[in-house]
Amino acid sequence: MVRNAAIIGRGHNQVVHGPDPTAHAEILAIRDACATLGRFDLAGCELFSTCEPCPMCYAAAWWARISTTHYGCTRHDAERFGFDDAAIYDDLEGRGPRQGGSSRAAVCAQVLLLEVDHLVAA
Ligand SMILES: [Zn+2]
After folding, report:
1. How would you list the strands of the sheet with 45-51, edge to edge?
2. How far is the CA of 88 from the centre of ligand 1 (A)?
């Protein structure tokens, strides 16, 4: 993570070492940068990553308000090496093979809508 041409956060993948499925390099770099700056807002910062961030890391970059993300290879490049980020994007868009074409996000949204209806009716 870079801000004003200075490195303010670093991270490398520790998923297997953790073991922690959320310990992607981007997430750890965001956490490190937040600790450095003492805030969650990383506006004005630039994230540099070897590969296009997965949906989790992309969302984290959005939440952190990172200004620009630079990456070297795409999700399609990563797919050739066994990473299935493209399948996650398919799932989010309701085309996931594991869900028979429906998205896990849609299922969760439906549950939350039912919960809201229940709460409003109470
Ligand atoms: Zn990631």
Report:
1. 6-7, 2-3, 45-51, 68-73
2. 11
